[in-house]
Amino acid sequence: MSNDKGGAERFLPDAVGTLHGRASGEARIVSLVPSLTELLFDLGVGDQVVGRTGFCVHPRAALRRVPKVGGTKDVQLDAVRALAPTHLIVNMDENRRETVEALADAVPNVIVTHPCVPRDNIALYRLFGEVFGCKSRAGELEAALRQALSEAAAVAADLPVEQVLYLIWREPWMTVARDTYISAMLAEVGWRTLPDRAGGATGAARYPAFDWSEAWLAGVERVLLSSEPYRFRERHVVEVRALAARPAMLIDGEMASWYGSRVIAGLRYLAALRRETARG
User: Fold this and answer.
1) What confidence category does residue 280 fall into, taking pLDDT thresholds of 50, 70 and 90?
2) N or C: which terminus of the chain has fewer CB atoms within 10 Å of its end residue's CB?
3) DSSP 199-242
4) Which of 33-42, 151-160, 197-206, 268-277 bottoms out in mean pLDDT, i.e. has the lowest?
5) In 10 A of CB 127, how many CB atoms?
6) Which tens digit of pLDDT belongs to each residue from 33-81?
7) How far is CA 102 from the centre of its chain?
8) Strands 49-52 and 87-91
9) With contact defined as beta carbons under 8 Å apart, do 125 and 102 qualify?
């Protein structure tokens, strides 16, 4: 367990403006966000995680000892309460507001997160580092992320922008809107997602269904088939190449969509993939 010592206590805001300071004593953390469960372990405070969702799968071996409390959307409220957590980690996109409200009286500290672009993870590192006493490790992750962002920017500067369609579901076919975290990750290496709909998207519109006859698809230069939430396979690549009449390929969805510490490896993965596709 990390035991960084700080000076005067600082209070840092979460995504809804709630100020959080250093946890007093040993924290008992329930994380309802898979990528942030991984971040807690990478920060060296995994021994303070007492509950997680069934979708929290990294680091796999270490998580075997941590009880599951349901999924990200169907949280078992009584199971969370029984663990007597001091801190609850939630996300505005991944968890339901009514779940958070139902647990607010039982958990003293609810940390709400909402990273929208890769750089937002820096604030997450600093917040978790402050709250859970692991500022040194958080600083290391911040430096690594800044380097990965610089490497991705170099790739984007070297190559022309390529318009891509990022598939997340089949029957119906679904993609991501321009204002999603996934789209922001792809943009770091010069992959610009379609469709581009003015005014932004909210709710379900952030992950729109579409038909292959829609006119905007004419602008797509490459199709990326994600490994999650729908597990696309090579047979689907063949299908999509026929439907889109464009190059198509599989992509690791965790590398494109997980924030926290995985964003560092994710940016480097996308940068390498972009260079590889550019070479043909």
Assistant:
1) confident
2) C
3) T---GGGGS-B--TT-GGGGG--EEEEESSSS---HHHHHHHHH
4) 197-206
5) 18
6) 999 999 999 999 999 999 999 999 999 999 999 999 999 999 999 999 9
7) 24
8) unpaired
9) no
- Residues in a beta bridge with 19: 13
How many other C-beta atoms are found inside a 10 Å radius of the C-beta of residue 191? 26
Q: For residues 91, 92, 94 and 99, what is the CA-based torsion angle, rounded to 10 degrees?
A: 90
Please report, as a single letter, which amino acid is at residue 178. R
Domains and CATH numbers, the chain: 12-141 (3.40.50.1980), 159-278 (3.40.50.1980)
Confidence of residue 202 (pLDDT cuts 50, 70, 90): low
pLDDT at residue 1 is higher than 90: no
CA 151 – CA 58 distance, rounded (Å):
25
Beta strands 222-226 and 162-167, pairing class: parallel
What CA–CA distances, in Å, run from 26 to 14, 46, 104, 133, 231?
20, 12, 20, 10, 39
Q: How many CB atoms lie within 10 A of CB 22?
A: 18
Q: Which two tokens stand for residue 119?
A: 């750089």
